[in-house]
């Protein structure tokens, strides 16, 4: 549980920190200190076990099926890193207490910082590679949030986005690499993977795995060519730079490489990829660092360069190089963290980090200056400091692998040493010279506790530098043994190894660095230059921004060509898919056997010719003559009805006829309010070649679609029917369903559940139409009375629609239809009653009744009808649905499933015994819903005319007849 | 059996309850918002409890093989309509009712009154969704699709403005054509096999003659086109981002679920009809599905990168998630099903939360100013150097920000939330298939990673612009009814991550059940109708 606590406690602390008040700077700091110190104690207590070479594991099943266990595992390497993360973390939170302004909202800061600490510990302690990736991305995320802490500043936002994009992309590569690696090994467990080095290196997937994992590690550790994010990450508060971007997070990449060294290293690919990136980075980073003006910028590039050094060592890959790499990771963390903190103090005290302004600070800040100078010396590799030791080892290693073939490596190392000394000199130059006059603030020594972390770190540099054998050796040994195992080399950490080439290189680097710095100051105006010589075109940040911009633009371009926002291409694609996909998937049809043909009937053919003609004509005129098109579509509908009748389906024919009638009338009513067609005139260009091509294409697709559907229908019709469930319905309609009209029994009994759904659809559509048209006002150009009704000869043209219906030419027709209303009602009842046994039923009856109401509206006008007949379509809808549903629920009382039909036998006086099936009541619900639907749509459409006439200048509608003699329907 | 145990009736209640509530609310006056919401919310809560109960019954051994069958109208399958609940449909019901509850509560303050009949339409939408998940009959599936779509037409247009009308027009037109395809497909399948019941289809498919097989192939591919249009496969799903961006937030949250219905229906029909009992038809069309899915994935990623506003981004996010599911299912069928379902749950929850969230974040500040800030950032134009003192984040903004991060992580599949777990388990399942891993699998994995990358880049851009670049922010006023649904959905995503093991256990039981087609057909076709009491007055 100890390991789990190590990882979990920072996260819990983060939660706690997040909910504290914004000004609780002290409480936040104490919390963070407690977390870090507690962690240190816990981790420290593990030392005896770890030093004995044990590997401690804790496991928790997370996704056992996927081989994903939550494994925490500590060995020497992990332990050393844990201590590093916690120790630097402790110092950083102490420092941050004084660094952060009282006005800064610190809960967010400490919450993210602690969350980062937890994530970093998670990376270090993961015993499962996938879990490691999870924590890895979490460090990217927390780093993003911390860089963007001062998010009102554009540079912070920019830096945060850049850092996250680069590291998260690397994280995805790492995930892919881990998947490949896991696939090679057969497990994601670290111990298993580390033990399978031979197999991994021999696998053909080794190279992809290596490249992907390297991409993850190199992006995280800011290696060339991904190094550019790190300088921009300096927009973060300095404690963050010191902790994440020098001491810990950027070390995650090299940590991973060291971690996976047993599994992946030892091949030329490893050396070339890792070593190559490292060498480029160490040169470029060190060189650019010299020319920075920002203190933190210099430190950032110096960090890049030192990370490059570590990467190079890992790339070299000999056991001794790995020892040196681990050693330098520790050394770099101590001196660079202290330098960042010193830079923060200077920034804090003077109000600027610009080295062109800063100068003579040793007078105002004597202690800080001393500390920073010692730390810089460690960075430069001055003897008796820790940086010297690991750099010496680095020189030795480059020499060792260098020899004759890789001599460039030694030269690169030497150059890096020279540059390192130069930028260290540049850094300490701010303490010397005359005190600057241009400082925004007069500097003083910082509070004691703000300086104490720096003091402690610098002291460490000294102790390690002077007494390496006593101080660092045991710790380094633990880490190295855990990584190298049996390959552990003999080495000797001592300040003095006698005169040898590495010592010569160190001396050369020191002398060369001083010389270079002097030359640069004299001849290259180091203090004034705005660009870096030679490599100033290599602006990674700008390349990144350009790439992102191009990515967005390219995506926009692709989107325009791969997709569409318009409806018509979508429908065309749908049609093409309908034509193409089945053909593609089903292939060529097999030989088709026909069932025996019926005789050929000329009359039937003639009906169909008419129907087909109507359909084609409707399509032909659809665009420009809506009215004609609608009428023609109606014609096709009638032919369909006739076909049903011809083929002995009277029920379908009846329904089809009524549906055609009602929909055509409703559509016609709606057509009135569509805007008029735009006349092709002077302003409109004549349709060009392109339009012609487009139309031809559409015609082709439409024809092909029609022919394909026809062929398919024909194929289905002529091929011998298999045994279908239809036979069952025919046999059981009367005996089981109690009706001889199979269609009706299907609707109200066998498949009444479908019917229930369908009437709900009707109700929904009616509600939608109502909701849409409720507040809709017709377009101004369609409000005027149509030209057909405005003929001068016609006396009716002088009347308003209300007058036409009330006293004009529509009066006679209106009165006749008024008289017809009860008769049509009776007809509807008749069709409803006989439904179960003969053509008819609730649906048809509902439509007939609707037509009766419809014609009233059309001839008598909305105002008249509504003043005499109170229609409540909403109630009809609700009542009908509830009635149908309640009928179905009645079956529950008898212990039967929903919608089971029951028949009551009632003895009525005079009439005799009546069978009253529950399906009858269900059908009544259908009837009511159909009537309600039609009425609601009708009302919604009809009220357009009222609103249209209420426009200014037309008073007709206001003079509506007084409401009298209401009947409620 | 002479009477049905009352618990059996629970299967049909998820359809009936919203139908009744929706119907009863139609005549209620428009200004009685409180009453309408109360009725709708009661229905929502009951549905949620009911779906959990059904899940418990399906998983708890209440029915043999975890399959409950309900014969509507008391006619045995395949003649009547059989409803069926198994672990998969129960899971979908729970998902539906959860998101519905969140959307309802979210809409309570404002959105349910920007137009009329919101609650009726919403209840009908639930009826359609639940029906589609429960039915085991192709034509009945069509009916419930229609109920669902008709209600969604109304809801997309709800509170209409020019944008919604334009988007709604596309949505309605495309989906009407898709419904037509559905009908053609169902007719062809009926013409080929003579049955509509899906379980019955399973039995009949292997014994079909060459002509019938051909018709079945054509019918099934037309049907698949209909499903894939709803599931927004490239190039059939261009309507989706426009519609999502235009719809009001609670409706958009429900739309997220509706793309998943297409995938569910496809899965249901394909597993049953072209499963291992299908002989030479086994796995029909899956290769094409995989290719289409990958194209969809790519298209979604491209769209994500190119979008600027949250609504469209969410739309492309939904396309990515559809594409992932289709590609993975097409690629390896039921082998990766458990992971696919886990992905479906997580991404649906996160997308729904994101839909609700976007509207809240848009209240922070008009987008123009933020856009300028972004441009300046990209070109490194520094305005005056600002103080290194942080800006306090008020509680509401912190809530919005954290929810945004959580949604972004799930949608893009970044660690540590359920999106990553889902993606990882998909990868694992793809790689764990026997034999050498083919290049197509690596391609699929790469595409999924790239889509995740595109998503995180786009979402980060949006998040930075919304939360960071908006300058001195005035915290938006949030209602508790708006915080609760978003927070709840996000919390569910987190819970899904922490309880991944338990969820996967359930899912693997689900997949096991789906794989046993024998017991499935036996359960559905063998369910006896309730016998009439002998000599009763009930006559047939």
Automatic annotation (TrEMBL), chain A:
Residues 126-409 form the NADH:quinone oxidoreductase/Mrp antiporter transmembrane domain. GO terms for cellular component: plasma membrane. Keywords: Antiport, Cell membrane, Ion transport, Membrane, Transmembrane, Transmembrane helix, Transport. GO terms for biological process: monoatomic ion transport. It comes from Zoogloea ramigera. Residues 693-790 form the MrpA C-terminal/MbhE domain. This is Monovalent cation/H+ antiporter subunit A. Residues 615-675 form the MrpA C-terminal/MbhD domain. Its main location: membrane. It is found in: Cell membrane; Membrane. Residues 815-935 form the Na+/H+ antiporter MnhB subunit-related protein domain.
UniProtKB/TrEMBL annotation, chain B:
GO terms for cellular component: plasma membrane. It is found in: Cell membrane; Membrane. The chain crosses the membrane at residues 6-26, 38-58, 88-107, 114-133, 139-160, 172-194, 214-239, 251-271, 283-306, 313-334, 340-358, 389-411, 442-464, 484-507. The keyword Transmembrane applies. Keywords: Cell membrane, Membrane, Transmembrane, Transmembrane helix. Residues 136-357 form the NADH:quinone oxidoreductase/Mrp antiporter transmembrane domain. PANTHER family: NA(+)_H(+) ANTIPORTER SUBUNIT D1 (PTHR42703:SF1), NADH DEHYDROGENASE (PTHR42703). This is Monovalent cation/H+ antiporter subunit D. It comes from Zoogloea ramigera.
